[in-house]
Specification:
68% of the residues lie in helices and 3% in strands. The protein is mostly helical. The protein folds into 2 domains: 140 residues, no CATH class; 72 residues, no CATH class. It has a two-stranded antiparallel sheet. InterPro entries: ABC/ECF_trnsptr_transmembrane, ECF_transporter_component. One of its GO terms (cellular component) is plasma membrane. Keywords: Cell membrane, Membrane, Transmembrane, Transmembrane helix.
Amino acid sequence: MNTDFFGPSAERNSWFGGLNAGVKLVVAGVLVLAAILIQDPVTAGIIFGLELVGFIAVGFRPVNLLARSWPILIAVLTTGWSVAILVNKTGAVLLDFGLNTITEGSLAAAFSMMIRSLAMILPTFAFVLSTDPTDLGDSLAQTFRLPARFVLAALAALRLVGILFGEWNTLGQARRARGLGAGQGPLGRIKTGAGQAFALMVQAIRRGSRLAVTMEARGFGTGKRSWARVPAYSRRDAYVAVAAAVIVACAYGVSLGLGTLRFLWQ
């Protein structure tokens, strides 16, 4: 990922990006929750397919979005492989590795996990990339009536996510300049990556501490606040909210009619 992955992008100027931040948060939450609660591939596949159609219809570019998040796509593939190897084996054997096998049941479970992950990733990234942190703070405080401390912390966290990616790249370049990680095997690279991750965590804690002290010094969250901007709502927000409900209803309804609907606890 590049350092401006969570920074200003074309998605904020899209039709979807112009929606109210609170509405986008609710829509993304509903779609993610709908994908979490089920475990069958049919429902997950319908949700993901309708999400693709819906985002394309509102001018978003889901294919480009998923291509930009290729590390997470690799994580989804490796998770699917792990599920296929570790879950209970049912059905006919498709691949036999001697110590382990992949069956029709384990492959279906792996496919379901990958589709569910994609169905959760797409609305989450669409929300993050198309939402201005200040708009989100205004909506959380004035629409959802959340405490000012929580709202300001969420706003600061969203703004600092992009900085973490920049610091990760800087740490990597500094380590390579000192000869660390060059010519190492897989275990050496894992060790180097763990050290870099620890250094990033230390920097994040220090930055968070400085930010907290600064916000306290300026009186954030100590009393009643006034707001420079009032979040606006339009018919487009209602359309998108209804579309999210329709996506969930169609996916669950079709799967229930086919007899394939299985919830996570079943």
